[in-house]
């Protein structure tokens, strides 16, 4: 078995007033009517990893209404006690084994991947969503990737401010561009490595889901992928960037390409069902690659993952998850969605009771 949440406690988190669950390290099948609070539950689990969770929500958005008290998520994961919370008007605070810790430290304890309905449009929306998906994939292999992205984006915001203000003095740009170049080169290297690992995992393991040929799409020249090359590119691009009022080249402009390998068709031109199946395949490949590296598969959060799969595909998905040994948190509107899982999973029924989510632990 891989990493698992063995205890989860919530206090005043979205629709959940109080939750206390003891869990086994096996798939968790969660069913209930729309609006009952299923996604809120797995969102809480997602906040045991670095970042803003699967909905990218701010701390204030997670508060249960109308009480508007502070919220808390406590968990036992991989032998560690994690506590993350936010008081009204205060930033989120994280503690690991009783000690205050930066969020990036969570990534060194638990690896987590997720697939949510909003990602179904990944291949037909703008490049920003695909970069975010790529960076989450990369973060699963290299927890420090998040720090590199934050460093790059902070320096770029300051550089963009200079560009908008039409500042022409080179000295103002030098230090910022060096920061961007160093962090940017690390981002590119991390992303390239993650892509190679997932592609290799897809090729090496049998799967009932379509395999994708992935590619990094960027306008950067080959020599603009190192720190020195990026620094030169930023310096040489100042005049053009000043006219635009923003930085026009760099890893923040990269895109992730995907082709349905068996058909040779770009993902954007595939059917909705094929696009969904390709996403599932990538998540499973990412999980297999992590299991190969760390010896344990990550925790998977799969919101409404079975909704657009027929019975055979659902059974194939569950078989792959169980073979992988992952604790996958999966949501669906009814228990029939998980019929083929049988006794290989534990079941939670979520219902609404006068505006409060109630969880019945069935087995």
The fraction of residues assigned to DSSP E strands is 15-25%
Please give the largest β-sheet.
Answer: 6 strands, antiparallel
Average pLDDT taken over every residue: 93
Shape: globular
Rg, nearest Å: 22 Å
Structural class: alpha/beta
Alpha plus pi helix count: 8
The level of helicity is 25-40%
Distance between the termini: 19 Å
Spans where pLDDT lies below 50 across 5 or more residues: none
Strand order of the largest sheet: 2-1-4-5-6-7
Describe it for me?
With 363 residues, this protein is of the alpha/beta class. The chain has helices at residues 38-46, 127-141, 145-164, 170-204, 227-236, 238-244, 272-294, 311-324; strands at 5-13, 16-22, 28-31, 71-77, 80-86, 93-96, 99-100, 112-115, 212-217, 255-260, 265-266, 299-302, 328-332, 346-353, 356-361. The strands form three sheets. It has a six-stranded antiparallel beta sheet. Strands 8-12-13-3-14-15 form a six-stranded mixed beta sheet, with helices on both faces. A three-stranded antiparallel beta sheet has the order 9-10-11. Helix 3 (145-164) packs antiparallel against helix 4 (170-204), helix 3 (145-164) packs across helix 6 and helix 4 (170-204) packs across helix 7.
What's a concise summary of this model?
With 363 residues, this protein is an alpha/beta fold.
Question: Secondary-structure blueprint of this entry?
Answer:
Blueprint: E1 5-13, E2 16-22, E3 28-31, H1 38-46, E4 71-77, E5 80-86, E6 93-96, E7 99-100, E8 112-115, H2 127-141, H3 145-164, H4 170-204, E9 212-217, H5 227-236, H6 238-244, E10 255-260, E11 265-266, H7 272-294, E12 299-302, H8 311-324, E13 328-332, E14 346-353, E15 356-361
Parallel strand pairs: 3-13, 3-14, 8-12, 12-13
Antiparallel strand pairs: 1-2, 1-4, 4-5, 5-6, 6-7, 9-10, 10-11, 14-15
Helix pairs in contact: 2-4, 3-4, 3-6, 4-5, 4-7, 7-8
């Amino acid at each position: 078995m891989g990493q698992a949440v063995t205890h989860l406690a919530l206090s005043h988190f979205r629709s959940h007033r109080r939750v206390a669950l003891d869990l086994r390290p096996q798939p968790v099948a969660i069913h209930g009517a729309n609006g009952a609070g299923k996604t809120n539950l797995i969102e809480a689990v997602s906040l045991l990893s670095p970042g803003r969770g699967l909905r990218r929500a701010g701390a204030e958005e997670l508060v249960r209404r109308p009480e508007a008290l502070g919220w808390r998520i406590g968990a036992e994961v991989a032998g560690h006690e994690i506590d993350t919370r936010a008081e009204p008007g205060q930033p989120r605070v994280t503690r690991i084994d009783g000690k205050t810790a930066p969020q990036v430290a969570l990534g060194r304890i638990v690896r987590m991947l997720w697939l949510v309905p909003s990602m179904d449009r990944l291949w037909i929306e703008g490049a920003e969503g695909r970069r975010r998906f790529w960076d989450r994939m990369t973060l699963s292999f290299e927890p420090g990737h998040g720090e590199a992205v934050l460093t790059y984006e902070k320096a770029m915001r300051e550089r963009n401010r200079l560009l908008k203000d039409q500042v022409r003095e080179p000295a103002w740009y030098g230090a910022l561009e060096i920061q961007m170049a160093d962090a940017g080169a690390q981002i590119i290297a991390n992303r390239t490595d993650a892509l190679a690992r997932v592609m290799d995992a897809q090729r090496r393991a049998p799967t009932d889901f379509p395999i994708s040929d992935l590619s990094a799409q960027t306008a950067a020249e080959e020599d603009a992928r190192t720190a020195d090359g990026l620094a030169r590119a930023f310096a040489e691009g100042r005049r053009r960037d000043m006219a635009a009022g923003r930085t026009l080249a760099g890893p923040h402009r990269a895109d992730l390409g995907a082709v349905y390998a068996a058909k040779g068709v770009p993902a954007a031109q595939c059917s909705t069902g094929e696009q969904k199946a390709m996403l599932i395949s990538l998540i499973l490949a990412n999980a297999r690659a992590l299991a190969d590296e760390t010896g344990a598969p990550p925790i998977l959060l799969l919101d409404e993952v079975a909704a657009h799969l027929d019975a055979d595909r659902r059974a194939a998905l569950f078989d792959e998850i169980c073979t992988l040994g992952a604790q996958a948190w999966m949501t669906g509107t009814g228990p029939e969605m998980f019929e083929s899982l049988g006794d290989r999973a534990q079941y939670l029924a979520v219902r609404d009771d006068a505006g409060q989510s109630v969880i019945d632990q069935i087995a």
